[in-house]
Amino acid sequence: MKLSLADRVVDWFLKNRRDLPWRGTSDPYRIWVSEVMLQQTTVATVIPFYQKFLEKFPSVEALAESKESEVLKAWQGLGYYRRAKNLRLGAQFLMQSFKGKMPKLLAEILEVPGIGRYTAGAILSIAHRIPTAALDGNLIRVYARHEGIQDPVDDPQVLKRLWKIAESHVPEDSQLSREFTEGMMELGALICKPRQPSCSHCPLQKTCRAHSDGLVDRIPRKFKRVKRRKISELVFWCEKNGRLGFLPTGSDTKFPDFLRLPFQALSDGEVPTEFEKKFKYSVTDRDFEVYLVKKSLRDRRMKWLSRKQINDILLPTIDRKIISAMTNS
């Protein structure tokens, strides 16, 4: 008997799955947290944050009752802080509307702030074993290659088509829902990678159109991407009486919830003649080159903090990196 795509994926997954912390739970809250953290972030990076976050916020109720600053502090280093804000808002919504329980109906779970169609499908299928399609970047790549779709996958009509494809492959047996969804995720992460996919180890190789047509390296295709901007800025190291100077919350629109080391944008191509150290970081479509300069500034907004106080404030990862480099140099 010919095995379905779902059967092949589940069979492969049961033999090859990684031992990840969220794989040992059916708690929808913990699966929700893992899915949100994994957006735009690698598994290796997420694991320690996931464990520490759940130690501090072990339940929907604990997260709902927390202060936003506490959640952002626990999220420091993961980036894309809107995710953390939405998690907290979602927890408050669940407490108000569903007594802290994650709903089991797709229409209801989509009402939760920060939960989109992919996350809803992941929670329903993984936590509740409810047959529901899920489609994120990895799964888009797997389905697009398997079906040989050469049209841009970020075209709304193509994406709509991919959702229908994903729905058509959801296993009829609800008991396989979790393993299928996790299996597809694992396939995209380990085998059907963006570059140099391991086609010879793929359980879908024999029915994959991209493989048979020699188009694996061309699929998925997207519309022409927006060119990334390169920006240079100065960051100032200001010390006074053993304390370090910071600009208050809201001084930098890139990091509106955090204090910041004093900074100044540079003109295109401008490089300071003297600086202590050079750093790099990225925000969405912008790549920053940072030149650190020791300088005394007169700014009434400055907050002067001791080393101990610095450990307890919200700072962007780049500022933590600068402080660590200067402290250990």
List the helices and strands and how they pair.
Blueprint lengths: L4 H12 L11 H11 L4 H14 L3 H5 L3 H8 L6 H17 L7 H4 L7 H11 L9 H11 L8 H13 L8 H15 L17 H4 L16 E9 L1 E2 L2 E4 L16 E3 L11 E7 L2 E9 L8 E3 L1 H4 L6 H12 L1
Parallel strand pairs: 1-6
Antiparallel strand pairs: 1-4, 2-3, 3-7, 5-6
Main features:
single chain, globular, alpha+beta, 329 residues, three-stranded antiparallel beta sheet
Gist?
The protein is of the alpha+beta class and about 325 residues long. About 45% of the residues lie in helices and about 10% in strands.
Describe this entry's structure for a reader.
It is a single chain. With 329 residues, this protein is an alpha+beta fold. The protein is 43% helix and 11% strand. The protein is built from 14 helices and 7 strands. The strands form 2 sheets. The chain has a 4-stranded mixed beta sheet with strand order 4-1-6-5, with no helix packed on it. A 3-stranded antiparallel beta sheet has the order 2-3-7. A hairpin with a 2-residue loop joins strand 2 and strand 3. Helix 2 crosses helix 3 and helix 9 crosses helix 11. The radius of gyration is 23 Å and the shape is globular. The mean pLDDT is 93.
Helix and strand string, N-terminal first? HHHHHHHHHHHHEEEEEEEHH
Structural class: alpha+beta
Mean of all residue-level pLDDT scores: 93
- Tell me how many strands there are: 7
